[in-house]
Amino acid sequence: MRIGDRAVLIVPALAALLGGLWGVRRGSMWQDEAATYAVAGRALPDLWRTLGNVDAVHGCYYLLLHPLIRLVGDAVPAEVLIRIPSVLATAAAAAGVAAVGRRLVSAPAGLYAGLAYAASPVVVYHAQEGRPYALVAAAVVEATRLLAAALHGPSRRTWVRYGAAVAVACLLNLFAVLALAAHAVTVLVAVARGGGRGVAARWAGAAAAALLAVLPVAWTAFGQRGQVAWLERPGLPEVKALVTRFAGSGVLLAATVVLVVLGLTTSRAGDLAGTTAGRTPGGPGRPPGIAAFAVPMALLPPALLLAVSQIHPLYQDRYVLFSMAGLAMALGAGLARAVRLLPQAAPGWVRAAAAPALPALLLWASLPAQAAVRRIDSRPDDPAAVARIIGSERRPGDAVLFLPSIRRLVAEAYPASFRGVRDAALRAGGAASGTLAGRELPAGEIAASLGAAPRVWVVSRPHPAPADLSSSRDSAKRLLLRESYRRERTVRVLGYAVRLYTRVSP
């Protein structure tokens, strides 16, 4: 590999790494990250028992983070520690996108594609998230890179590695199976271009082997499908939000559309139709080009998830983060073509300046979104703020109640702030009970457990929906507070309300 070829991969990877590390701390984990830290940090028997009850869909991700959390401990802030794998995965994905663009189009197109992926605000958002989606995207990009290699030069080893990459992606999150639909379209294009039936058979065999490997996780996760029962049927607002998050809005969206069209309608044979360099006898006739890879990956997984969610709501845009790789590939091709379209009569310095200027302009247009995804309020809530309030104002004898019990993840994520504060409704903690946030006492036993606590902290959402507090346990907690306590004050922080109650009756 020439030095220039290495730079095509290294520069986007470094850009993604630096972009992911910039502002990675933020000072708080939000609730889903708190679940990551709490579950992945448990002893292996407790972790395994938890996955049998809940969150099996993220089990492989938790097992991957487990040794990191157990080995590093408190040497690194928890919110930084759980995000480092996502930062590294994003760097790997940016390099992978660049590799695909280089193979299918050219080195400049690959460089631009990798940088477009690394600089995308939605990619940065998940690079700084202690959840599995950046790792899923990296595995899908690697599978796509291997598919491109296999279609350009048949190799049994490449197909085996492709199947392994697909399996890893699906084990990290089952919705990665949607990437196979995009790859199926790419393979069909390859067959139509003269790839032969063997290409389709080899792809089908690799995909089937990957799905078989994932089957136990899928079966367990299906039994826990109640976890996503809160999701609602997506509509036009969700589609608009998806477009905005992935492609921007206003001028940025318009520029993205123009560049994508440029990239996908290029007339150069090596840009769209694929190249025949390095073809082996009996291999593909004309390997598919950038359009056959980028368009299905960018459009098909989100479209399928939206369609299925009209029947059974499952839609969340983070489940299809990997589709951003397809958009980045098309953007890279478009940027490379835009530079080539400059008049040949233009001075050399103009052409040289245009090469970095065009991606720099796109980055400049995305800077407001870049800044926004690094703020605490880019996430739904701020558990660390809750922990700071209770940790700084707790007194001996204080108790705490969580409405509903899932809010106990605040204490699971920041246990030091709750030392000495008695969890009056807790029967068994999350690790001991194999649940996310522990098991609570029966409703009739909470009053006796609370006893005569002089002060009670209550942690809830600022305005919880009645359905969220409809359980008998939560009704018992609220009745106790009404009958025996007076609310002294309420402090609202991002996503939470912290209320302090003092006892008024014996």
UniProtKB/TrEMBL annotation:
Keywords for the protein's UniProt record, in alphabetical order: Cell membrane, Glycosyltransferase, Membrane, Transferase, Transmembrane, Transmembrane helix
Q: Where are the transmembrane segments?
A: 80-100, 109-127, 133-151, 163-191, 203-222, 242-264, 289-307, 319-336, 348-367
Task: Tell me, in one coarse class, where this protein mainly resides.
Answer: membrane
Q: Which InterPro entries match?
A: LipidA_mod_glycosyltrf_83, RgtA/B/C-like
Q: Name one Pfam family in it.
A: PMT_2
Tell me the GO molecular function terms: glycosyltransferase activity
Membrane topology field: Multi-pass membrane protein
**Where does the UniProt annotation locate this protein?**
Cell membrane
What is the protein's given name? Mannosyltransferase
Give start and end of each Glycosyltransferase RgtA/B/C/D-like domain.
79-218
